[in-house]
């Protein structure tokens, strides 16, 4: 289902954009993704009422839901984070067809850059080259003591996540809680973000998928796109200022259906389904 943006009618049709991609007029697609592209892989998002993570934290008696990812709270109470870690990082999940679509964009040399807010690593698993993406909120690939920053072994971390237990620094003089290298509220984004964000201004198409655009600075990326450059939102609901520009197109529905519709318009559907099957 395609709907014109709620505030301004878009003078751009779906097929018009697809034709501009296939005829080579659009070659630098910048993408911003959020938790909504991984929900069909089995990882709930954060804010969808009823199913999002933040609606399910009552038993953990947090002062407020986001405390679970707040560094100031983690330093004295790391237990709640590890109580939900396994659900956020169950391991060996299959990427969704939305992740496969991003890999297909890269394969066709159309992916200028991908900013993901997700920490699940499914973009890389789907085949997106790591030099074409930034985990703006970090990822689970490594972990360090939150206090002395000593490295911590991967296998011990995997055991801790599986058991839902807090891993502690192996340095006897420290013993503080270990944290995966994900960006918590109160921490800075990777230094690379500052430099990379200018790529949004280089885009000749911006694709925003599966995010509520509620958390800065990622939520500001679509605003960096030059006026007149088309922006597509594929999301269950409206987000940010998407839909306020004449060249915006809001596709309200699931990411997986949205990328299938886009692939059909591009003539890439079979290639996409095959790429996803082999991911
Ligand atoms: N298809 C399309 N949209 C979806 C789907 C889906 N299958 N599932 C969920 N959504 C939409 C929701 O409607 C919502 O607008 O994806 C969005 C997810 O929003 P959030 O739960 O807020 O997740 P996200 O935007 O990624 O959050 C950003 O907040 O908690 C922090 O660090 C965390 O990276 C996260 C950041």
UniProtKB/TrEMBL annotation:
Which reaction is catalysed here?
A: N(6)-acetyl-L-lysyl-[protein] + NAD(+) + H2O = 2''-O-acetyl-ADP-D-ribose + nicotinamide + L-lysyl-[protein]
Keyword NADP found: no
The family line of this record is: Belongs to the sirtuin family. Class I subfamily.
* Keywords from the UniProt entry: Metal-binding, NAD, Transferase, Zinc
- The UniProt record lists the EC number as 2.3.1.286
Which cofactor names does the annotation list? Zn(2+)
Note describing how the cofactor binds: Binds 1 zinc ion per subunit.
Q: Tell me the protein's name.
A: NAD-dependent protein deacetylase
Q: If you read the UniProt record, what top EC class would you report for this enzyme, in one word?
A: transferase
Q: Where does Zn(2+) bind?
A: 145, 148, 169, 174
Q: Name one GO molecular function term.
A: NAD+ binding
* Annotated GO CC locations: nucleus
Catalytic site: 137 (proton acceptor)
Q: Does the keyword Transferase apply?
A: yes
Which amino acids does the record list as binding NAD(+)?
35-39, 45-47, 117-120, 211-212, 235-237, 255
């Amino acid at each position: 289902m395609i709907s014109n943006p709620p505030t301004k009618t878009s003078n751009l049709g779906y097929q018009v954009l697809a034709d501009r991609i296939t005829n080579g007029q659009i070659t630098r697609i910048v993408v911003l993704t959020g938790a909504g592209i991984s929900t069909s892989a089995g990882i709930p998002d954060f804010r969808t009422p009823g199913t999002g993570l933040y609606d399910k934290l009552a038993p953990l008696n947090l002062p407020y839901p986001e405390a679970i990812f707040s560094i100031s709270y983690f330093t004295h109470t790391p237990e709640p984070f590890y109580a939900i870690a396994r659900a956020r990082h169950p391991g060996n999940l299959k990427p969704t067809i939305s992740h496969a679509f991003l890999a297909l964009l890269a394969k066709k040399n159309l992916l200028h850059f991908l900013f993901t807010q997700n920490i699940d690593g499914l973009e890389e698993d789907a085949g997106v080259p790591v030099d074409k993406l930034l985990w703006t909120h970090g990822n689970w690939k490594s972990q360090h003591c939150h206090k002395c920053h000593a490295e911590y072994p991967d296998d011990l971390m995997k055991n801790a996540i599986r058991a839902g237990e807090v891993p502690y620094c192996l340095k006897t003089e420290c013993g503080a809680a270990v944290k995966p290298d994900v960006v918590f509220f109160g921490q800075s984004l990777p230094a690379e973000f500052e430099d990379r964000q200018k790529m949004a201004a280089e885009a000749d198409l911006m694709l925003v998928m599966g995010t509520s655009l509620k958390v800065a600075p990622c939520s500001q990326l679509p605003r960096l796109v030059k006026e007149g450059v088309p922006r597509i939102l594929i999301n269950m609901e409206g987000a940010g200022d998407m839909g306020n520009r004449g060249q915006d197109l809001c596709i309200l529905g699931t990411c997986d259906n949205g990328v299938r519709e886009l692939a059909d318009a591009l003539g890439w559907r079979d290639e996409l389904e095959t790429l996803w099957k082999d991911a």
